[in-house]
Amino acid sequence: MRREKPATAKAEETRERIVDAALELFRKEGFDETTMRDIAAEAGVATGAAYYYFGSKEELVMAFYVRTAEEARGLLPSIMERSTDLRKRLHAIIDLRLSQFAKHRRLFIALARIGIDPAHPLSPFGKDTRSLRDESIDAFRAALQGSNVRIPKDLHDELPTLLWLYMMGVILFWIFDDSPGEARTRTLLDGTLDLIVRLIQLSGLPLMGPVRRRLLRTIKAATI
Amino acid sequence: MRREKPATAKAEETRERIVDAALELFRKEGFDETTMRDIAAEAGVATGAAYYYFGSKEELVMAFYVRTAEEARGLLPSIMERSTDLRKRLHAIIDLRLSQFAKHRRLFIALARIGIDPAHPLSPFGKDTRSLRDESIDAFRAALQGSNVRIPKDLHDELPTLLWLYMMGVILFWIFDDSPGEARTRTLLDGTLDLIVRLIQLSGLPLMGPVRRRLLRTIKAATI
DNA sequence: GTTGTGTTCTGAACATGTTCAAAAAAAGCC
DNA sequence: GGCTTTTTTTGAACATGTTCAGAACACAAC
After folding, report:
1. Could you point out which of A68, A171, B108, B206 has its C-alpha 20 to 30 Å from the C-alpha of A117?
2. B148-186 pLDDT tens trace
3. CA-to-C1' span, B216 to C19 (A)
4. Is the CB of A119 less than 8 angstroms away from the CB of B109?
């Protein structure tokens, strides 16, 4: 049985060697082009060793995602300190993730292929990825809190999740964006962020209560 | 070399047998669980024969999609005749496609796994799938034309594509919807369709010109 | 009918993700 | 140190998508 955490320091080191080899080869050759035998050889172990630490080739891609999440965790607090402007904050979060993924485009697409299967344990909406998802949503919660925009109380709970969904949408767009430097995704992000921030601001006006509540009801009914 | 169209009637018949066997097994056992050997055996041919007609297992999934598209082509005209109400028309189109896919949920997810890779020939945004995509977009164009809602001229070109994108979004939501009878997707569709139809109506008001044009500019810049 | 040519089909071979029984190494215990 | 137990590692075996050289077949030309 594969264990969650290697027991010994040496095992931990072997595990690291395998991830490093895998990510390096994925980056250089692509996900499909890299074989588990290549990875094992590069890490200096037998093929089976990779399967002792990772249940499948796909779990190695997940290791990549976990690394980006850890990196983001380290970087985001200082980014939040730079400004209280909501638009800048949201832009910074999404821009950071996009930049991380852009460095490993093909690998990220392999991840998307895995994630789009709702039955797959590594799907972004599944329960196995819950902590990663929650952390990502909390980033948006933190961006809202202490920002220069007042958020109506009844939006407090849902808005972070909605913004996270919005980011997922932008990332989906980015996957299919073949413009140089992903310029089109940048354009979309700039244009829609303006719209979103303005909508959030407007939603606070007294007149908007009924509209906001109606929308909220639809969203809740659809996502419960 | 694999040919586009089989030359003889017998070959055409073999091809059909292979598709039928594949779809039947996919439906009964699931895409991943069905092997090419199973398919060939069920169709009464050698394994290699399947590869004579289809370049890969994935192309067999595409055959499924093509069948649903053909079915939709047959059904949509009569549906359009039933009402000129825009909301009903849009609902009918999307509901038809959702119902078709719901009958083969797991198979559709295999299709999604293929389609999310922008480099894959069968991606819904690629040039190989252009005619299927255009046909799908044209369905929305037909729904708009002769509907009870007047469409501003500058929206004529883009709106069908935007509605198609909206449908893609709903389908994406549906993929992850595990509620019984896909009730949540139905709720989302009902709620957002109201919003969309109202937005389209509002966009025709003289006051909305600048807003509409600004949004159009963003969309065009992002999708050129 | 024979020959030639293009089409359809076969089944063995190959590549690669994955499994697993057993060996090797490490850790724990006296 | 020697013994037992647990962890780690090995490499061959297996399953399945895919390829391919050639066999079988169909059909036209003569």
Report:
1. A68
2. 998 888 888 889 999 999 999 999 999 999 999 999 999
3. 55
4. yes
> Domains in chain B, start-ordered, CATH in brackets?
1-55 (1.10.10.60), 57-223 (1.10.357.10)
Q: How far apart are CA A108 and CA A111, in angstroms?
A: 5
Three-state DSSP class for A6?
Answer: coil
**Amino acid identity at A50:** A
Half-sphere exposure of B161 (CA within 13 A, CB side): 13
| pLDDT tops 70 at residue B6 | no
In chain A, % helix, strand, coil (3-state, to 5) comes to 75, 0, 25
For residue A24 the two structure tokens come to 């390096």
Strand runs (DSSP E) across B20-109, as ranges?
none
Q: For residue A70, which amino acid is it?
A: E
Residues near B25 by beta carbon (within 8 Å), at least 6 away in sequence: B34, B38, B39, B42
B113 in contact with chain A, both atoms CB, cutoff 8 A: yes
pTM of the model: 0.90
Taking alpha carbons only, the member of B175, B202, B203, B151 closest to residue B98 is B175
In a mutational test of the A interface, the residue from B117, B129, B177 whose CB has the highest number of chain A CBs within 10 Å is B117
Q: What is the pLDDT of residues A67-93, one digit of tens each?
A: 999 999 999 999 999 999 999 999 999
Sites in chain A below the pLDDT cut of 70 = 1-7, 206-209, 211, 223-224
